[in-house]
Specification:
It is found in: Membrane. GO terms for molecular function: transmembrane transporter activity. This is General substrate transporter. It is a multi-pass membrane protein. By secondary structure, this protein is mostly helical. It has one domain: Growth Hormone, Chain: A, CATH 1.20.1250. Helices cover about 70% and strands about 0% of the residues. The protein has a two-stranded antiparallel ribbon with strand order 1-2. Helix 2 packs antiparallel against helix 11 (about 185-190), helix 8 (about 115-130) runs parallel beside helix 10 and helix 18 (about 305-310) packs across helix 19. The longest helix is centred in the C-terminal third of the chain and has 35 residues, at about 430-465. The N and C termini lie far apart (about 70 Å).
Length: about 475
Amino acid sequence: MADLADSQTHLLKKHVRTLDETIERFIGSFGWAQLLQAIVVSFAWVFDAQQTFISVFTDSEPTWHCINPNNESCNSVISTNSCKLPRSAWTWDESIQTSTVSEWDLSCVGPIIAGLPTSSFFAGCLLGGLVLATLADSSLGRKNLLVLSCLMMSLTALLTAFSPNVWVYSALRFITGFGRATIGTCALVLSTEIVGKQRRDKVGIIGFFCFTIGFLSLPAMAYFTRGSSWRILYILTSIPAILYCILVHFMVHESPRWLMVQGRKEEALNTLKSIASPYYGTNSSISLSSLSIEPEQWNADLYSAIKILWDKKWAFRRLSAVMIVGFGIGMMYYGIPLGLGNLASNLYLSVTLNALSELPASLITFFLIGRLNRRSSMLVFTMLSGVCSIMCVMINDGRQGLRIGVELVSFFSTCTAFNVLLIYTLELFPTCVRNSALSMVRQALVFGGVFSPVLIAAGRREDDDHGGRDKR
């Protein structure tokens, strides 16, 4: 039985290698048409980032002040926690519409309700990934699922702007997360499957740059709309995403590798001709019909990809390992930006610096990915992130500059580990299950993010109870 399993694994690798090499001979390893499609597809990460971190501003806790300046109990150093004061003794510094916390009076609720909207978003991501993950490998394909996911996310985000209370708001955030779940996976796989294997890691990093652009756009939009309703931010981020879905539908081609695995060889051939460079496009002597592919074996039903990952011991071991690592990285990656409000620093500046720290992380990954040992680099960056996070807690409030610096190193290390993990996952699995495997790893990352908002809200309450934050 062991010999038979080894033989099947060998045939699997040989099958995928033949498909990759034949496609590369037809369209080349990399061309301008491939680059253009990779950029357009990767731009989905911009809207992914915006909806992922938008709650940093929309759900932030605004500053407050005492209504009566002569009220000694309100202005005492001990009473830095507004929840210990009568509601009539204090008020928000700005309009209550600037944040969901002030509009729905969530400042003194428990950590579960306070973190419910963001946790609902990540819970939606988790469920969406489990439900939608295999559609890209089976019936819908990479392109159609990308359009469907992005459209669901953006339309629901637009509806979120009209939420009447925290419960409807949380429900809509859940649906937004459900739609968003597979955007990054589809964009990453679709952009990398139209280029040669040697260029796949470099092209995959384009999405990371786009994610950084989306992250950076949030503090800019939030700053210029400060003092306005938090609903404006949802409208500004959702409308461009809807227009982007239309662009992808008409401009982007489906993955030729996925079409071949599905047995749709004529469509694959037309796609290859449309994205092939002039040099390779004239080589019509290559016949894709000569490939021995058995679509039924690889796509028997909706969850065939997951069955393959489960049945193949080597695939299950790899998937388990990268998912465990992904859980820890996800808790840090999503938790650090969401917890910036607890550092008592300028939120716009802190988010901007954190978003900028993703750039060197992406650059390091881009230029050194060919030289980095995947496992060793992830070990180094995750350990550095953990050590810096512990140091951030130990630094007192009087050294804010040092605390922010250590926090930035922690987030930079987490971002780099995040990037390396996704590229590593792409390299570990063949075409027929690559999208599903990457989706499972992203679900592990998101699962770590589910716990972050509640832990952050609990930490904020603990900090307030001990007088750790000032009325700024």
